[in-house]
Structures are given as structure tokens and as C-alpha cells.
């Protein structure tokens, strides 16, 4: 079949890879001049999400105090944002959390397998490192993480619950003073460079005959019974900066996959499919290593504040500092004081857990928006139109989940039953809203 994938982030590129592997002819449409420029560019590094990493559950967003949760609330919520926060809060209940993570788990495992297959085939070097240490300041927080730790045990994810002394032994850059409650070491989980992985995969796709329409924006989707098509926004004629040509180009296909990150709801709204997804602005700091002896050799995660500190060669990448605000405001740049507060959370996280490791004053800040659903799961699957598919809203775990969700999409497009349980497929489906 001829399949169009809209979006050149990890979601779109992984989808194109699985579609090509399934024998389809694929065209990727991306509005930027190259791939991995959206949320994929700013990833924090964790490859696969564990029950401790997902952005829902008993330890997530317990209060509105940013210094406790790592999440900033921008005043002036609209009703939709209040509703989003309220629904997400329901998953703080341990039973609800456990049931929801259990639905997601098969997708995590499918991704693990898909990434292992890609690693086995191409032996890419995308700056992989092994080991994540989740740390907890207070006993109460560690107790709240008990359902997640129980899920690690149930799904046989290799892990060790550590005393503070054992944490310091596992990662000597973590100070034993001030005191903290302990940690969970995920020795075999990996971090890596997601944009690099995306670009390496793109190269393989180009060699495999996948067509890339870069620098082109999908303006709308056209659907009828027989064929589907994407209308491309007109290009500005050469030599003109602003004026656009009136010529509309339409690319037809047998199927379309929307993997357009935060651009997904707008594209689907044009075919009357409204998704209650919420954008969250998230920050990173990339700082040079200050003192080698203080730099962590495994990734350290402030588990409650969801701040991940990952070493990438001679740099430290700190990711987190999310800002919850009304959806309409998320597309606009944040006011300076909020940006400063979000970045200060990241600086504080570094100071608390790996002091002296990085030159935070010389750090390069970045921020990007990622889409969340209020039930914590992505939107992956078919739609009510047989030729339209969606792969989006992976929230904090789009890097890891991309390769598995891409496989689900490729199976659905090919008319094959995906290799995940039916309740997982239903929980990811667009029809659940
Ligand atoms: C700070 C930060 C830290 C993160 N840390 C992690 C982590 O540690 N682990 C993890 O697994 N995930 C992490 N994530 C999440 C992960 O990065 C995202 O879930 C993932 O990159 C989303 O990929 P995507 O392809 O869906 O979206 P994107 O990367 O945003 O790609 C979507 C693409 O679609 C294009 N597009 C949109 N609309 C159109 C249109 N109309 N026409 C043409 N092109 C269009 C955009 O230009 C963009 O390139 C993090 C995200 C952020 C922001």
C-alpha cells in the first residue's frame, strides 16, 4: 500500500520504519527542514518507561507546590485544564494506577523487542548508557512509590530497592547529606540520544526507498471511501519570504498515519475528530560537566519531581520542569518569570542530587511541548475512517514507546492483529474518549 506518515519526530520515523519493514511504500511529510526537531529534540534520555517513570500515579503531582512536585501551575486555568488535572489525579489511587500501568505494559515490552530488533540489525551507536537510579528524599514519598515498585516486581523488571548508603555506593555523585529516604536502581534500563537514533533510522529509510517531503506542512487531510489524501500547504515561491503560492499540492495514498506530535489534534479536528489531549511545556538544561569526579555514571532521577539527570558524553542533560497551563496558552512562549522558575527547578534538582557535577550557570536551556492524555496513555490505533490512523500523545515516554506503537500501527495498516492484548489496544484507542 501507499502510506503517508505526517510527522518526522521519533513517532513518525519509527512508524515509517515499521511500515517499510512490512512492505509498504511510505512517504513522510515533515514541516521542518529535517527530522527530530519537535519534542524528539528535547528528550530526557530514558529509553523505556518503567512504572516509576510514567507521569501518572501516586507520586505524581500530589499538590500544587512546585517545590514538592516539580510541576509549575500557571494561574488562570480554563475549564478543560481543570478537568484534565482532575482526571489525571484519579490515577493517584494505587489500584487505579496499577490497573492503568498494567494496560500500558505490553506496549512497553513490544517497544523493548522492536528496539532490540533494530539494535540487532544495524548496531547503531546512539550514545546508549545503562542504569537509572530513582531517588526519594522522604520516607513518605518512597512509601507512595510502593505500587510502582510492586509493578516492577510483578513484571520482572530487574531492580533493587536501595538504602541511602547503597544508593551512594551505586552512584557516588549522590551525597549522603542532607539525608534522604533511599532509591530504586534499574540496572539494566537504558538512556540514549533520541534525536540521534531518529536520524540514524531516517538514513536507513532513505536507503530503503522511503520518500521524505521535508519543509512541507500538511495543511489538511482529505478522506473519501476509496482513497485518502494530504493537502500540502503551498510553498513560498523562491525569492519571497512571506507571500505563498496559491498552488495546492495533494498527495494521495491508501492510508494516512498522523504522528504529528502537538500538530496532531489540529489535523484531526479538520476531519471532525476532536481529541481531549493536553499540551504540557517541559524544559531541559544541557550543561558542561564541571568536575569529572562529581559527574554521575548512571542517570539519576528525582522520582517524585520527575527530574532526570543524564550524562551525555561531556555534558549533563537535565529534563523536567513541566508547566501546566491552559491549552490555548501552551503554543505561545512562556512569560520570562515562569521559564526562570521552571529552569530553577532543574538547577535545584541538580544541586540536590549531584552537586558540583555540571556548570549549571553555563547550561543551554530548551523547552518544548508534549501532548498528554488525562488517562496517561498515548493514542495509538485506527480511527472510524478505515484509511486514517493515529500515533500520538506519548507524553513523557514517546521515545521509548515509539518503536512499539509504530509496530501496532504497521500491523493495523497491514490488516494484521497487533501483538498486544485486546484490552491494551482498547486502552490506547482513539475511541476511548
Ligand atoms: C523536555 C522533554 C524531555 C523528554 N524526555 C523523554 C524521555 O526521557 N524519554 C522518553 O521516552 N520521552 C521523553 N520525552 C517525550 C518524547 O520526547 C516525546 O514523546 C516524543 O519525542 C514525541 O515524538 P513525536 O514524534 O510524537 O513528536 P515530535 O517529536 O514533536 O514530532 C512531531 C513532528 O510532526 C511535525 N508536524 C506537526 N504538524 C505537522 C504538519 N501539519 N505537517 C507536517 N509536519 C508536522 C513537527 O514538525 C514535528 O517534527 C521528552 C519530551 C520533552 C519535551
Could you describe the 3D structure shown?
By secondary structure, the chain is an alpha/beta fold. The chain has 2 domains: 177 residues, FAD/NAD(P)-binding domain (3-Layer(bba) Sandwich), CATH 3.50.50.60; 192 residues, D-Amino Acid Oxidase, Chain A, domain 2 (2-Layer Sandwich), CATH 3.30.9.10. Helix content is 33%, strand content 25%. The chain has 13 helices and 18 strands. The strands form 3 sheets. Strands 3, 4, 5, 6, 12, 13, 14, 15 and 16 form a 9-stranded mixed beta sheet that branches. It has a 6-stranded mixed beta sheet with strand order 7-2-1-11-18-17. Strands 8-9-10 form a 3-stranded antiparallel beta sheet, with no helix packed on it. A hairpin with a 4-residue loop joins strand 8 and strand 9. Helix 1 packs parallel to helix 8, helix 4 packs across helix 12 and helix 4 crosses helix 13. It binds flavin-adenine dinucleotide (FAD). The site of flavin-adenine dinucleotide has 40 residues, from helix 1, strand 2, strand 12, strand 16 and helix 12. GO terms for molecular function: D-amino-acid dehydrogenase activity. Keywords: Oxidoreductase. Belongs to the DadA oxidoreductase family. This is Amino acid dehydrogenase.
Amino acid at each position: 500500500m501507499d502510506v503517508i506518515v505526517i510527522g518526522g519526530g521519533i513517532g513518525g520515523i519509527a512508524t515509517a520504519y515499521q511500515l517499510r519493514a512490512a512492505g509498504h511504500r511510505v512517504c513522510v511529510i515533515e514541516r521542518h527542514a529535517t527530522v527530530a526537531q519537535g519534542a524528539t529534540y528535547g528528550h530526557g534520555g530514558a529509553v523505556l518507561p518503567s512504572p516509576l517513570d510514567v507521569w501518572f500515579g501516586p507520586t505524581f503531582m500530589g499538590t500544587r507546590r512546585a517545590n514538592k512536585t516539580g510541576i509549575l501551575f500557571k494561574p488562570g486555568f480554563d475549564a478543560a485544564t481543570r478537568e484534565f488535572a482532575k482526571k489525571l489525579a484519579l490515577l493517584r489511587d494505587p489500584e487505579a494506577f496499577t490497573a492503568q500501568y498494567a494496560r500500558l505494559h505490553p506496549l512497553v515490552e513490544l517497544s523493548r523487542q522492536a528496539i532490540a530488533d533494530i539494535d540487532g540489525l544495524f548496531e547503531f551507536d546512539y550514545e546508549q548508557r545503562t542504569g537509572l537510579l530513582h531517588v526519594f528524599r522522604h520516607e513518605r514519598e518512597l512509601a507512595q512509590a510502593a505500587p510502582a515498585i510492586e509493578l516492577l516486581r510483578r513484571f520482572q523488571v530487574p531492580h533493587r530497592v536501595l538504602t541511602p548508603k547503597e544508593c551512594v555506593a551505586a552512584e557516588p555523585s549522590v551525597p549522603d547529606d542532607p539525608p534522604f529516604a533511599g532509591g530504586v536502581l534499574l540496572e539494566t534500563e537504558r538512556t540514549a540520544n533520541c534525536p540521534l537514533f531518529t536520524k540514524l533510522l531516517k538514513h536507513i529509510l532513505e536507503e530503503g526507498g522511503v520518500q521524505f517531503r521535508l519543509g512541507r506542512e500538511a495543511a489538511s487531510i482529505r478522506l473519501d471511501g476509496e482513497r485518502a489524501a494530504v493537502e500540502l500547504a503551498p510553498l513560498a515561491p523562491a525569492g519571497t519570504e512571506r507571500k505563498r503560492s496559491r498552488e495546492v499540492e495533494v498527495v494521495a495514498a491508501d492510508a494516512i498515519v498522523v504522528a504529528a506530535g502537538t500538530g496532531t489534534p489540529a489535523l484531526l479536528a479538520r476531519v471532525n475528530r476532536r481529541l481531549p489531549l493536553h499540551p504540557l511545556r517541559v524544559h531541559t538544561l544541557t550543561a558542561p560537566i564541571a568536575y569529572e569526579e562529581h559527574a554521575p555514571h548512571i542517570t539519576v532521577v528525582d522520582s517524585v519531581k520527575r527530574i532526570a539527570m543524564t550524562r551525555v558524553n561531556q555534558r549533563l542533560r537535565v529534563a523536567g520542569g513541566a508547566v501546566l497551563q491552559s491549552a490555548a496558552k501552551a503554543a505561545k512562549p512562556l512569560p520570562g518569570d515562569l521559564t526562570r522558575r521552571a529552569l530553577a527547578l532543574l538547577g535545584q534538582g541538580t544541586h540536590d542530587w549531584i552537586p558540583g557535577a555540571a556548570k549549571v550557570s553555563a547550561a543551554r536551556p530548551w523547552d518544548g511541548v508534549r501532548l498528554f492524555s488525562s488517562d496517561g496513555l498515548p493514542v495509538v490505533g485506527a480511527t472510524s475512517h478505515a484509511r486514517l490512523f493515529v500515533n500520538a500523545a506519548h507524553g513523557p515516554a514517546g521515545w521509548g514507546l515509539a518503536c512499539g506503537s509504530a509496530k501496532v500501527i504497521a500491523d493495523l495498516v497491514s490488516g494484521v492483529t497487533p501483538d498486544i492484548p485486546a484490552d491494551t489496544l482498547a486502552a490506547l484507542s482513539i475511541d476511548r474518549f
